[in-house]
Recover the amino acids of this structure.
């Protein structure tokens, strides 16, 4: 009898000691396996291309205008046409991954980047340059949200915010590499070397393609949602370093599928009772992001020229150095954002508010202090980058896996459209008065602050497939702590 009770106690102790795994714990356990590292390499590679292709015209606006003899409308169109492509690609991305495997879509896009960049660098004609920028934008619109979502789905919740920010260093490094190429081959914007600079920069999409074809795996979350359980658990077994039991597999499947707010993964589900307010505010905030990150940079070169109007042709080198300073500050901002977003009493919402307030202050000071313009506008871009990156990360976190590709693709389509419009708008405002774009951004940002405060959900420290509670600026209610802190302490 004693031995029977001892056996019973041992059995219950053993079952108690064996902790049941959930998906987030497996992601933490397998954080340094090849799958999470490959997801990181893929998002870095696409952000390298993103940084290159978006900023080519911004950095080379003066020599490109001289080479092609752009009329005013053509100059504005050349800067904005890539964002038209990005808008069309972004809305397509969610539907493509709904009907085709993510890996297939991404590999095709990656190969086409190499071809299109090489094509417009060799056949350097106005019409070809326009068409290729449109098509590259379309591919980037497909590629970027899928890779960002894939990476987000591999991250454990405890350090997700930091890592979703830090990956954007690739965007800034791409800008810096391209500017060094410009300094080496056309330091005074000599248009004779323009074609050579574009050909050398082909190395960025080529490296990205090599990384993509050799390191691409879909995430277990997305595979389970699409009923590809065998492939999903093959990855999870490797990440867990031991095979999962059938009971554990069923628990993970239920954990993911039962927490999905959406049923069919359609755009209309972004505007159900749970997501409506969040979706509308994200779109409004993307307009401010577009103005700060793409409206201001397109006129920075022109403003610098305005401040140095009588210094002549030799001053083109100082314009390149100004752009390099801004790019270097942008690089630091991506690292700083990772630390900011994980501050317990700020979270995602508080970080957005703080970065936007500092951006507004610096922009207003920059335009009124010409001697310090490069430094101040560089630091304003520091906080503009932080704001943009946190918002894009929040966009990936707040929607569940069932509609993540569709929702992020749709919101990014709106964002890219705003980027295109902001460049037209800011170039027109610059014609009216060179200070007008900067003051306009300040006024618009004040309204944006109110809407950030009204965002209903805080994603910090929460699993991306959990149902978020309504939050009150620095606090939210949860099951364990009725007036709990923003982030629960995790053991």
């Amino acid at each position: 009898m004693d031995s029977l009770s001892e056996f019973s106690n041992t059995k219950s102790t053993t079952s108690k000691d064996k902790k049941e795994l959930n998906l987030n714990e497996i992601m933490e356990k397998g954080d340094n396996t090849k799958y999470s590292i490959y997801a990181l390499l893929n998002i870095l590679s696409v952000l390298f291309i993103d940084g290159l292709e978006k900023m080519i015209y911004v950095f080379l606006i003066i020599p490109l205008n001289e080479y092609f003899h752009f009329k005013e409308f053509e100059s504005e169109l050349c800067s904005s046409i890539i964002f038209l492509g990005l808008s069309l690609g972004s809305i397509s991305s969610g539907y493509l991954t709904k009907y085709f495997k993510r890996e297939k879509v991404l590999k095709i896009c990656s190969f086409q980047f190499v071809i299109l960049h090489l094509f417009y660098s060799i056949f350097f004609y106005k019409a070809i340059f326009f068409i290729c920028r449109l098509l590259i934008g379309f591919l980037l619109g497909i590629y970027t949200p899928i890779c960002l979502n894939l990476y987000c789905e591999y991250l454990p919740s405890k350090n997700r915010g930091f890592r979703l920010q830090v990956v954007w260093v690739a965007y800034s490094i791409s800008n810096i590499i391209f500017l060094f190429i410009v300094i080496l081959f056309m330091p005074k914007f000599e248009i004779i070397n323009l074609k050579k600079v574009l050909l050398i920069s082909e190395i960025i999409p080529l490296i990205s393609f090599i990384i993509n074809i050799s390191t691409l795996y879909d995430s277990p979350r997305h595979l389970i949602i699409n009923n590809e359980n065998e492939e999903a658990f093959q990855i999870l077994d490797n990440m867990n370093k031991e095979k999962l039991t059938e009971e554990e597999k069923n628990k993970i499947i239920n954990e993911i599928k039962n927490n999905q707010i959406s049923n069919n993964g359609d755009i209309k589900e972004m505007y159900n009772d749970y997501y409506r307010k969040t979706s509308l505010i994200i779109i409004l905030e993307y307009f401010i992001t577009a103005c700060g990150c793409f409206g201001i940079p397109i006129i920075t070169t022109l403003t610098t020229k305005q401040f140095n109007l009588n210094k002549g042709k030799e001053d083109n080198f100082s314009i390149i150095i100004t752009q390099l300073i801004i790019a270097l500050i942008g690089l630091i901002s991506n690292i700083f954002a990772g630390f900011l977003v994980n501050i317990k009493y700020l979270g995602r919402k508080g970080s957005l508010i703080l970065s936007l307030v500092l951006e507004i202050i610096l922009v207003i000071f920059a335009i009124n202090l010409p001697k310090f313009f490069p430094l101040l506008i560089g630091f304003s871009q520091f906080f503009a980058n932080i704001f943009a990156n946190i918002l894009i990360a929040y966009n990936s976190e707040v929607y569940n896996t069932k509609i993540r590709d569709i929702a992020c693709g749709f919101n990014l389509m709106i964002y890219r459209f705003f980027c295109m419009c902001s460049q037209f708008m800011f170039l027109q405002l610059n014609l009216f008065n060179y200070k007008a774009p900067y003051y306009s951004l300040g006024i618009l940002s004040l309204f944006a602050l109110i809407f950030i405060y009204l965002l209903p959900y805080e994603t910090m420290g929460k699993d991306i497939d959990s149902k978020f509670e309504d939050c009150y600026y620095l606090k939210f209610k949860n099951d364990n702590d009725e007036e709990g802190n923003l982030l629960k302490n995790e053991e």
In short: The beta strands are 471-472, 475-476. Residues 276-307 form the longest helix (32 residues).
